[in-house]
């Protein structure tokens, strides 16, 4: 899905320059709670997404589940390898040289020794995937998450991460370097990988979307909590910071 | 590693300071090691169930027992109910707590069932506010390891956990949202909610 009217190359360049200006301020503070001023619109998009899931993604994932597991894993590995150049670019923009290097080696190892990315030999060799995205780059540059947004076709996000998703799509080095059949194959691998994830975590997806009393509120909470957790990158494990206290709820305080 | 640094006067002061901080923490019965030991036991029980090869309903029954034994269910139930708990009668609270215990252990028991063939390992524990946080890692087949945190206290009269946080996703927060939405659907009628929880 592309939004050429919103994100012309010019617009992206502008956004990039503005962000670069903000760089050096350090990562944005991790907010807690839910900031959702667009709730009515988001709920509308949520029901569309839920409809898409029930007619396309969920049955598609079920059908795809009949493909032998090693084949599906191979497709996932290819999709993962295709994401690496983008991850690398974002790691560099975040100043994470070590992670960028690991992903560079991972890319090389899996392409050369893993049959062009079908086999994930790099993880076994001690180079596990460290994925990232432009939303995280914006976070590292000090941009706050902004209001919660549910994106059509993509699901839960925030204003910042929605911009990140679009930038990653438009700027992806692999799609910019490929065209024709190669580009179609790359897109197909990514879509199949998504189906596979939907199949693999079907219990979790189903319980949120179809078993909870308010699937919109559950999906929103789940996304915000896990995204914030992801962006702390294990920083919450340190015994010093305030970050890890964000999610702390004291059920004994008001009895 | 130069061990003599700790013996300088400044180092000695630091050690003393550390001791004072530790002394200012909740003195009472529970300490970090005991909190960790509690979760070690709970995790041991959970690991035994997920690798027992029993049927789903047998496993869910066992998870409920584990939950009742190691978790402060009345406090979790009250927290999930939010402000409604304040206006509820004692009879309503006791009926809700009972129904909630079945609901929550089934829900999280199903999640733990996905861990079949895997295991949870307790890593460390530390004081957090006036409680303790025990950090564990779940190792699942074909999955990168992920973090599960347990918040432990003895404020309910004995050592129990009152929250589980899986990769940043917080049980108390999720259940407050879920129970709140269930109440809204029933126009705030707690008795209707209890009846429906008992049926599920």
Automatic annotation (TrEMBL), chain A:
Alphabetically ordered keywords of this record: Lipoprotein, Signal
Positions of the UniProt region annotated as Disordered: 235-255
Skewed-composition ranges (Acidic residues): 242-255
Signal peptide: 1-23
Family the entry assigns: Belongs to the MlaA family.
Cross-referenced PANTHER family: INTERMEMBRANE PHOSPHOLIPID TRANSPORT SYSTEM LIPOPROTEIN MLAA (PTHR30035:SF3), LIPOPROTEIN VACJ-RELATED (PTHR30035)
Protein name, as recorded: VacJ family lipoprotein
Organism: Pseudogemmobacter lacusdianii
Automatic annotation (TrEMBL), chain B:
Species: Pseudogemmobacter lacusdianii
Domain of life: Bacteria
Coiled coil location: none
InterPro entries according to UniProt: MlaC/ttg2D, TAT_signal, Tgt2/MlaC_sf
One matching Pfam family: MlaC
Protein name per UniProt: ABC transporter substrate-binding protein
Keyword terms of this UniProt record: Signal
UniProt KW Ubl conjugation keyword: no
Family matches, as PANTHER family: INTERMEMBRANE PHOSPHOLIPID TRANSPORT SYSTEM BINDING PROTEIN MLAC
Cleavable signal peptide: 1-29
């Amino acid at each position: 899905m592309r939004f050429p009217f919103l994100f012309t190359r010019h617009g992206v360049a502008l956004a990039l320059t503005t962000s670069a200006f903000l760089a050096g301020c350090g990562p944005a503070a991790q907010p807690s709670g839910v900031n959702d001023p667009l709730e009515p619109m988001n709920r509308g998009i949520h029901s569309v997404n839920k409809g898409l899931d029930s007619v396309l993604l969920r049955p598609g994932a079920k059908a795809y589940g009949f493909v032998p597991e090693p084949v599906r894993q191979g497709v996932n590995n290819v999709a993962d390898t295709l994401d690496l150049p983008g991850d690398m670019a974002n790691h560099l923009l975040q100043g994470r040289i070590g992670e960028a290097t690991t992903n560079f080696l991972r890319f090389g190892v899996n392409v050369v020794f893993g049959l062009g990315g079908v086999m994930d030999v790099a993880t076994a060799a001690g180079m596990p995937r460290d994925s990232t995205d432009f939303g995280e780059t914006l976070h590292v540059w000090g941009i706050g998450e902004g209001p919660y947004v549910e994106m059509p076709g993509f699901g839960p996000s925030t204003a910042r991460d929605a911009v990140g998703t679009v930038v990653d799509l438009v700027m992806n080095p692999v799609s910019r370097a490929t065209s024709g059949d190669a580009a179609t194959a790359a897109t197909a691998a990514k879509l199949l990988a998504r189906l596979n994830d939907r199949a693999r975590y079907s219990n979790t997806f189903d319980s949120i979307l179809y078993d909870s009393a308010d699937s919109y509120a559950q999906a929103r909470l789940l996304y915000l909590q896990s995204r914030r957790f992801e962006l702390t990158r294990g920083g919450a494990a340190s015994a010093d910071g305030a970050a890890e206290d964000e999610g702390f709820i004291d059920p004994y305080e008001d009895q | 590693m130069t061990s003599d640094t700790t013996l300088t006067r400044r180092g000695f002061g630091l050690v003393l300071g550390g001791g004072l901080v530790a002394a200012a923490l909740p003195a009472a019965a529970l300490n970090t090691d005991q909190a960790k030991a509690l979760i070690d036991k709970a995790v041991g029980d959970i690991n035994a169930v997920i690798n027992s090869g029993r049927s789903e309903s047998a496993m869910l029954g066992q998870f409920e027992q584990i939950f009742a034994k190691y978790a402060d269910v009345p406090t979790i139930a009250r927290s999930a109910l939010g402000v409604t708990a304040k206006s509820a009668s004692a009879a309503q609270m006791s009926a809700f707590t009972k129904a909630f215990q079945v609901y929550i252990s089934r829900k999280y028991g199903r999640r733990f069932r996905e861990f079949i063939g895997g295991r949870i390992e307790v890593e460390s524990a530390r004081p957090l506010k006036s409680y303790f946080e025990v950090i564990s890692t779940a190792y699942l087949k074909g999955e990168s390891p992920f973090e599960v945190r347990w918040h432990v206290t003895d404020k309910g009269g004995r050592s129990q956990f009152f929250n589980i946080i899986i990769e940043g996703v917080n049980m108390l927060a999720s259940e407050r949202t879920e129970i709140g939405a269930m109440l809204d659907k029933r126009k705030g009628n707690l008795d209707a909610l209890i009846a429906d929880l008992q049926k599920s």
